[in-house]
Amino acid sequence: MANSASGMHVSDECKLKFLELKAKRNHRFIVFKIDEKIQQVMVEKLGNPGDSYDDFTNSLPANECRYAVYDFDFTTNENVQKSKIFFIAWSPDTSRVRSKMLYASSKDRFKRELDGVQVELQATDPSEMSLDIVKGRAL
User: Fold this and answer.
1) Angle 12-19/97-113 helices, nearest 10 degrees?
2) What span, in angstroms and rounded, lies between the C-alpha atoms of 36 and 32?
3) For tag attachment on the chain, is the N or C end more exposed, with fewer CB atoms within 10 Å?
4) What whole-number distance in Å separates Cα of residue 94 and Cα of residue 67?
5) C-alpha R_g of the chain
6) Angle 64-67-71 (CA atoms, 0-180°, nearest 5)?
7) How far apart are the first and last CA of the chain?
8) What pLDDT is recorded for position 100?
9) Helix ranges, the chain (H)
């Protein structure tokens, strides 16, 4: 079903891989890319369960927008192991204006397809999604 605001479709693979991340924990993260030619959100990269947060941030291109989800494991102040699924809208200042507009207009519709996202972050440079910020938002 197309997003009425941007005409964007979401591939079934996006939903399937997200369910695998959420239920089976097969992936640490997923990076999604909009294929502008076919107007569809696609899976670009899957992170292995053992991948680090640095592996995740290094998989985001420096000059192009992306959506991503990250399964963040942490320990609460009460020493309880937990995890939260983060949705990250990556829109670097150096990316094309048209691309930023496309990702911004499609974001809410795409995020609704991912049932189970607990925290949303928007970042225009790596400092806005540092591990400290993610930890702070998780607790």
Assistant:
1) 60
2) 13
3) N
4) 16
5) 15
6) 130
7) 35
8) 96
9) 12-19, 53-58, 97-113, 131-138
